[in-house]
Protein backbone atom coordinates (compact mmCIF):
# COMPACT_ATOMS: atom_id res chain seq x y z
CA UNK A 1 0.00 0.00 0.00
CA UNK A 2 1.50 3.36 -1.01
CA UNK A 3 2.40 5.69 1.76
CA UNK A 4 0.24 8.80 2.05
CA UNK A 5 2.12 12.03 1.62
CA UNK A 6 1.00 15.54 2.54
CA UNK A 7 2.34 16.61 -0.85
CA UNK A 8 0.39 14.58 -3.43
CA UNK A 9 2.38 16.01 -6.34
CA UNK A 10 5.41 13.95 -5.22
CA UNK A 11 3.76 10.84 -6.67
CA UNK A 12 4.28 12.25 -10.17
CA UNK A 13 7.50 11.54 -11.89
CA UNK A 14 9.49 13.08 -14.67
CA UNK A 15 8.07 16.07 -16.52
CA UNK A 16 4.85 16.15 -14.51
CA UNK A 17 6.73 16.53 -11.24
CA UNK A 18 8.98 19.19 -12.72
CA UNK A 19 6.01 21.17 -14.18
CA UNK A 20 4.08 20.96 -10.93
CA UNK A 21 7.17 22.10 -9.03
CA UNK A 22 7.66 25.05 -11.38
CA UNK A 23 3.96 25.91 -11.09
CA UNK A 24 4.08 25.81 -7.31
CA UNK A 25 7.27 27.84 -7.32
CA UNK A 26 5.67 30.54 -9.48
CA UNK A 27 2.57 30.60 -7.29
CA UNK A 28 4.77 30.94 -4.21
CA UNK A 29 6.64 33.85 -5.73
CA UNK A 30 3.40 35.54 -6.78
CA UNK A 31 1.77 35.06 -3.40
CA UNK A 32 4.82 36.13 -1.45
CA UNK A 33 5.21 39.17 -3.70
CA UNK A 34 1.58 40.07 -3.10
CA UNK A 35 1.98 39.60 0.64
CA UNK A 36 5.18 41.63 0.70
CA UNK A 37 3.42 44.43 -1.14
CA UNK A 38 0.54 44.34 1.32
CA UNK A 39 3.03 44.46 4.18
CA UNK A 40 4.64 47.57 2.71
CA UNK A 41 1.28 49.28 2.21
CA UNK A 42 0.14 48.33 5.68
CA UNK A 43 2.59 50.78 7.26
CA UNK A 44 1.59 53.66 4.94
CA UNK A 45 -1.05 56.17 5.95
CA UNK A 46 -3.92 56.18 3.50
CA UNK A 47 -6.44 58.99 3.48
CA UNK A 48 -9.70 58.08 5.14
CA UNK A 49 -12.56 59.09 2.81
CA UNK A 50 -14.75 59.71 5.85
CA UNK A 51 -12.24 62.08 7.43
CA UNK A 52 -11.41 64.19 4.37
CA UNK A 53 -11.62 67.94 4.87
CA UNK A 54 -15.00 69.54 4.32
CA UNK A 55 -14.58 71.72 1.24
CA UNK A 56 -18.26 72.58 0.79
CA UNK A 57 -19.19 76.24 0.52
CA UNK A 58 -21.33 77.61 3.34
CA UNK A 59 -24.61 79.30 2.50
CA UNK A 60 -24.83 82.45 4.64
CA UNK A 61 -28.22 82.00 6.31
CA UNK A 62 -29.25 83.33 9.70
CA UNK A 63 -30.10 80.52 12.18
CA UNK A 64 -33.91 80.58 11.67
CA UNK A 65 -33.53 80.47 7.87
CA UNK A 66 -30.90 77.74 8.20
CA UNK A 67 -33.31 75.63 10.25
CA UNK A 68 -36.05 76.19 7.69
CA UNK A 69 -33.69 75.22 4.88
CA UNK A 70 -32.69 72.08 6.76
CA UNK A 71 -36.38 71.20 7.17
CA UNK A 72 -36.88 71.54 3.40
CA UNK A 73 -33.87 69.27 2.76
CA UNK A 74 -35.18 66.66 5.21
CA UNK A 75 -38.58 66.86 3.51
CA UNK A 76 -36.84 66.21 0.17
CA UNK A 77 -35.11 63.17 1.66
CA UNK A 78 -38.36 61.80 3.10
CA UNK A 79 -40.10 62.45 -0.21
CA UNK A 80 -37.39 60.55 -2.11
CA UNK A 81 -37.94 57.58 0.23
CA UNK A 82 -41.74 57.68 -0.21
CA UNK A 83 -41.39 57.98 -4.01
CA UNK A 84 -39.08 54.97 -4.03
CA UNK A 85 -41.57 53.01 -1.96
CA UNK A 86 -44.41 54.05 -4.29
CA UNK A 87 -42.37 52.77 -7.24
CA UNK A 88 -41.71 49.50 -5.42
CA UNK A 89 -45.44 49.19 -4.75
CA UNK A 90 -46.10 50.16 -8.38
CA UNK A 91 -48.23 53.12 -7.25
CA UNK A 92 -47.12 55.24 -10.19
CA UNK A 93 -49.78 57.89 -9.63
CA UNK A 94 -48.55 58.59 -6.09
CA UNK A 95 -44.92 58.59 -7.25
CA UNK A 96 -45.70 61.08 -10.01
CA UNK A 97 -47.74 63.36 -7.74
CA UNK A 98 -45.10 63.45 -5.02
CA UNK A 99 -42.35 64.08 -7.54
CA UNK A 100 -44.21 67.02 -9.06
CA UNK A 101 -45.37 68.64 -5.83
CA UNK A 102 -42.39 68.00 -3.56
CA UNK A 103 -39.38 67.93 -5.88
CA UNK A 104 -40.39 69.73 -9.07
CA UNK A 105 -40.65 73.41 -9.90
CA UNK A 106 -43.72 73.82 -7.67
CA UNK A 107 -41.53 73.16 -4.63
CA UNK A 108 -38.83 75.48 -5.99
CA UNK A 109 -41.32 78.34 -6.27
CA UNK A 110 -42.59 77.64 -2.73
CA UNK A 111 -39.05 77.66 -1.36
CA UNK A 112 -38.24 80.95 -3.09
CA UNK A 113 -41.30 82.57 -1.49
CA UNK A 114 -40.38 81.45 2.04
CA UNK A 115 -36.59 81.92 1.79
CA UNK A 116 -34.48 84.86 0.75
CA UNK A 117 -33.01 83.89 -2.64
CA UNK A 118 -30.41 86.67 -2.42
CA UNK A 119 -28.72 84.71 0.41
CA UNK A 120 -28.00 81.79 -1.91
CA UNK A 121 -25.02 81.82 -4.29
CA UNK A 122 -25.78 81.65 -8.05
CA UNK A 123 -24.14 78.19 -8.27
CA UNK A 124 -26.60 76.95 -5.63
CA UNK A 125 -29.51 78.16 -7.77
CA UNK A 126 -28.03 76.34 -10.78
CA UNK A 127 -27.80 73.09 -8.83
CA UNK A 128 -31.30 73.56 -7.44
CA UNK A 129 -32.66 74.14 -10.93
CA UNK A 130 -30.88 71.00 -12.19
CA UNK A 131 -32.51 69.07 -9.32
CA UNK A 132 -35.98 70.39 -10.12
CA UNK A 133 -35.49 69.74 -13.85
CA UNK A 134 -34.46 66.14 -13.11
CA UNK A 135 -37.56 65.77 -10.92
CA UNK A 136 -39.80 67.17 -13.66
CA UNK A 137 -38.30 64.68 -16.13
CA UNK A 138 -38.88 61.87 -13.63
CA UNK A 139 -42.52 62.95 -13.22
CA UNK A 140 -42.88 63.00 -17.02
CA UNK A 141 -41.52 59.46 -17.38
CA UNK A 142 -43.31 57.78 -14.42
CA UNK A 143 -46.63 57.30 -16.32
CA UNK A 144 -44.82 54.91 -18.70
CA UNK A 145 -44.73 52.46 -15.74
CA UNK A 146 -41.49 51.19 -17.26
CA UNK A 147 -38.95 50.85 -14.47
CA UNK A 148 -36.13 50.52 -17.02
CA UNK A 149 -36.88 54.15 -17.96
CA UNK A 150 -37.97 55.36 -14.52
CA UNK A 151 -35.05 54.13 -12.41
CA UNK A 152 -32.29 55.81 -14.45
CA UNK A 153 -34.22 59.08 -14.23
CA UNK A 154 -34.77 58.54 -10.50
CA UNK A 155 -31.00 58.08 -10.26
CA UNK A 156 -30.53 61.43 -12.04
CA UNK A 157 -32.63 63.07 -9.33
CA UNK A 158 -30.41 61.48 -6.68
CA UNK A 159 -27.28 62.60 -8.54
CA UNK A 160 -28.63 66.17 -8.52
CA UNK A 161 -29.24 65.94 -4.76
CA UNK A 162 -25.75 64.60 -4.11
CA UNK A 163 -24.09 67.20 -6.37
CA UNK A 164 -25.64 70.02 -4.38
CA UNK A 165 -24.86 68.48 -0.98
CA UNK A 166 -21.25 67.91 -2.03
CA UNK A 167 -20.92 71.58 -2.99
CA UNK A 168 -22.85 73.43 -0.26
CA UNK A 169 -23.67 73.39 3.44
CA UNK A 170 -25.81 75.68 5.51
CA UNK A 171 -22.91 76.87 7.70
CA UNK A 172 -19.34 75.84 8.39
CA UNK A 173 -20.19 73.97 11.60
CA UNK A 174 -22.90 71.81 9.99
Polypeptide structure, described:
With 174 residues, the protein is an all-alpha fold. The protein contains six helices and two strands. Helix 3 (92-103) runs antiparallel to helix 5 (122-141). The longest helix has 29 residues, at 15-43. The model is unreliable at 5-12 and 29-40 (pLDDT under 50).
**What's the total count of β strands?**
2
How far is the first residue's CA from the last residue's CA?
76 Å
Determine the structural class based on helices, strands and strand pairing.
mainly alpha
Task: Characterize the overall form.
Answer: globular
H and E order: HEHHHHHE
Widest sheet: strand ordering: 1-2
Please report the number of helical segments: 6
Q: Main beta sheet: strand number and arrangement?
A: 2 strands, parallel
Mean pLDDT: 77
Q: What is the CA-based Rg, rounded?
A: 29 Å
Unreliable runs: 5-12, 29-40
Strand content: under 5%
Amino acid sequence: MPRSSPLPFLFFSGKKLFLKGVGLGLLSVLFSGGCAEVEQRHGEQRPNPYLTPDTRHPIPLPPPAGKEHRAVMLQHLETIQVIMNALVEEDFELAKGLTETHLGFFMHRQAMVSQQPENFPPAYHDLAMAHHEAAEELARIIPTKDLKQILPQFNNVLKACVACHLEFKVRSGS
